[in-house]
Amino acid sequence: MDNIQAIRGTKDILPSEVIYWQHLEKTASKILEKANYHEIRTPIFEQTPLFERGIGEATDVVGKEMYTFTDRGDRSITLRPEGTAGVVRSYIQHKLFASGGIDRLWYSGAMFRYERPQAGRQRQFHQIGLELLGSRAARADVEVIAIATDILKALGLKNLSLQLNSVGSKEDRQTYRQALVNYFTPYQNDLDTDSQDRLTRNPLRILDSKDQKTQEIAKNAPNILDFLQDDSRSHFDKVCTLLTDLGILYELNPRLVRGLDYYTHTAFEIISEDLGAQATVCGGGRYDGLVTQLGGVETPAIGWAMGMERLILLLEQLQPLKPQSPDIYFVSRGEKAENQALVMAQNLRQHGFKVELDLSGSNFAKQFKRGDRSGAKICLVLGDSEVETGIIQVKNLENAEQKTVSQDQLLEILSLSL
Question: C-alpha angle 167/173/176, rounded to 5°?
Answer without folding.
Answer: 105
